[in-house]
Amino acid sequence: MKKFIIALFCLCSFSYAVEYDALQGKMLSLSCASCHGTDGKSTTITPYIAGMGKTIMYQTLLDYKNGKRTGTMMQKHVKGFTDAELEQISYYFSKVER
Ligand code: HEC
């Protein structure tokens, strides 16, 4: 019974579609501003991430987190966020005008 409940829980959490929470997205995105500029509009050599596609950004962030992609900073930074938070952040930047 216990296993069944755990399995059910896993199934539910997988099928749960994350809804966009604009306030949370904005709050979390502030931690990126120090390097990527306000709203991701970088004016330095750090990549310009404003308006980046949501799916591609989310996948990129997951790749950094899982070590599939490496960089100087990013893999350390993303480890502080849950996958759901990274998805909110990706939503946020995708909605910023380039
Ligand atoms: C300490 C500085 C720093 C912070 C903070 C930071 N980044 Fe980055 N980011 C970088 C650098 C530098 C790169 C280039 C790859 C590398 O060297 O890690 C990069 C690369 C990226 C890329 C890949 C861009 C591309 O076109 O390949 C994405 C997406 C990204 N960052 C998103 C974010 C998000 C979202 C946050 C906030 C959660 C964030 N970054 C916070 C420095 C930072």
From TrEMBL:
<dbReference type="InterPro" id="IPR009056">
    <property type="entry name" value="Cyt_c-like_dom"/>
</dbReference>
<keyword id="KW-0813">Transport</keyword>
<dbReference type="InterPro" id="IPR050597">
    <property type="entry name" value="Cytochrome_c_Oxidase_Subunit"/>
</dbReference>
<feature type="signal peptide">
    <location>
        <begin position="1"/>
        <end position="17"/>
    </location>
</feature>
<dbReference type="GO" id="GO:0020037">
    <property type="term" value="F:heme binding"/>
</dbReference>
<dbReference type="GO" id="GO:0009055">
    <property type="term" value="F:electron transfer activity"/>
</dbReference>
<dbReference type="InterPro" id="IPR036909">
    <property type="entry name" value="Cyt_c-like_dom_sf"/>
</dbReference>
<keyword id="KW-0249">Electron transport</keyword>
<keyword id="KW-0408">Iron</keyword>
<feature type="domain" description="Cytochrome c">
    <location>
        <begin position="20"/>
        <end position="97"/>
    </location>
</feature>
<keyword id="KW-0349">Heme</keyword>
<keyword id="KW-0479">Metal-binding</keyword>
<dbReference type="GO" id="GO:0046872">
    <property type="term" value="F:metal ion binding"/>
</dbReference>
<dbReference type="Pfam" id="PF00034">
    <property type="entry name" value="Cytochrom_C"/>
</dbReference>
<keyword id="KW-0732">Signal</keyword>
<protein>
    <submittedName>
        <fullName>Cytochrome c</fullName>
    </submittedName>
</protein>
